[in-house]
Design goal:
This protein has 121 residues and is mainly beta. It is 0% helix and 34% strand. The chain contains no helices and ten strands. A three-stranded antiparallel β-sheet has the order 1-3-4, with no helix packed on it. Strands 6-7-9 form a three-stranded antiparallel β-sheet, with no helix packed on it. It has a two-stranded antiparallel ribbon with strand order 2-5.
């Protein structure tokens, strides 16, 4: 890319960020009021947002996060009688989608105990 008048260069936003303009090319230009020096056309990279609609978890819920921007996490809360399996949260990804949640599995108490002078059935 040239740094002289008319020079052009391509801008690439980092993962999780998106460009705010119609093109990702910036140009070295001069303004009518300042013809002796140049400047690059404006371009900024802004953080991406995921949907406020969170994935669903059977036998549980995902707690509403404080934000929906890239790398924000939201905790999974299982219903009573269920345990959370990994991952215990969802995360807003660079592609603007929430990651897949873990699952809430029913708690297993194991085999019934031996009852002295009795039975469990």
């Amino acid at each position: 890319s040239s740094q002289e008048f008319g020079g052009r260069t391509t801008v690439t936003c980092d993962p999780g960020y998106t460009g705010n303009g119609p093109t990702s090319v910036i140009t070295c230009d001069v303004s009518a009021s300042e013809v002796t020096s140049g400047s690059w056309t404006m371009f900024t990279c802004a953080v991406v947002n995921c949907s406020r609609t969170l994935p669903t978890v059977m036998n549980g819920t995902i707690l509403t996060p404080s934000a929906t921007t890239y790398l924000t996490t939201a905790q999974i809360s299982c219903n009573i009688g269920y345990n959370n399996t990994s991952p215990t949260f969802v995360i807003c990804q660079a592609n603007t989608q929430w990651s897949m949640p873990g699952t809430c599995r029913i708690i297993d108490c194991g085999t019934t105990p031996a009852i002295e002078y009795g039975t469990a059935s």
